[in-house]
Each structure stands twice: as C-alpha cells, then as structure tokens.
Amino acid sequence: xxxxxxxxxxxxxxxxxxxLRMKQVQKITLHHTNSNPFYPYSIKExxxxxxxxxxxxxxxxxxxxxxxxxxxGEIFEGRSKFFQGAHVESFNDANIGVAVIGDxxxxxxxxxxxxxxxxxxxxxxxxxxxxxxxxxxxxxxxxKLPGSCPGDxxxxxxxxxxxx
Length: 164
Ligand SMILES: [Zn+2]
Description:
Layout: E1 3-4, E2 27-32, H1 43-57, E3 67-69, E4 75-77, E5 95-100, H2 111-127, E6 135-137, H3 152-163
Parallel strand pairs: 1-4, 2-5, 2-6, 3-5
Antiparallel strand pairs: 3-4
Bound molecules: zinc ion.
C-alpha cells in the first residue's frame, strides 16, 4: 500500500509537547472531514487548510487524524501514529483516526476509494491485531444520528466492510 508521507504535504512542524503518546491501539475510527466537495482546491491545499484549522485555531500539536484519504483513494499520513490523535472526544488515547476528505452525505464512495480504504483498514487491523468490528464510525461513539460523521455513504461502506 502506498502512503504518501507527511513530508509530501506538511508545511509546518508538529508540536510534540502538545500531544500524548499513543496507548496500545484498541479502535480505528472512520471520519469524513465534512468539507465542501466542490472546492476548487487541490488535495494538498485542503490538507494544509485542515491542518491550519487544527493547529492554529484549535491549538493542537498536529492535524487531528492519523491518515487522510482523498476521494480518489490517495492515502496521506497525518499525525504520527505514535501520538494520540484528536478526532473522537474522550476516546483518543488508543484510537487511530482515518478521515476521508469530503462530505459523504453528498459524495458517493468511488471504487478507488473503496479499494484504498479496504487495504488501509485491513493493514491497520493486522498491525494492531484487531478485528474488523473494532473499526467504528465516529457517530457510533455519540449521537448515532443519520447524517453525522462519517456521512451516510461512508458509514454504509463501513458496515459492509465489517460484515465481510
Ligand atoms: Zn468524525
């Protein structure tokens, strides 16, 4: 699996003092960034603007997610997997965050995206000795409302992935 390292897009240095060491990973959580899919910006510009929001506006040590995936299935490294992310409030200490860039209440999950997510999630499950049922959608921690993160189309993909 090809993962584009964070050096390919980050234009800043993470602040390690503002992050905690990752504990033994128990869960993987799927998100969408809920960003307008019709922005005319490149994927790298979108990663940088998301990272600026997380580090400057929120004051976090780095972008909140460990992996970010484009609608075309390109996989980017986000925050180092050796640090806890900032993606599910109160459940970050042993939890890898994977976010797909876009709004998956509007966008369908393309075939390339399905292939990339299946490979990424399968490799993470193997790396941390987890089960497919350990991959949750963000909405499953909280309100469970239709439409909430990771968007209905991506959540449907995730349920199918877990049932396989
Ligand atoms: Zn989310």
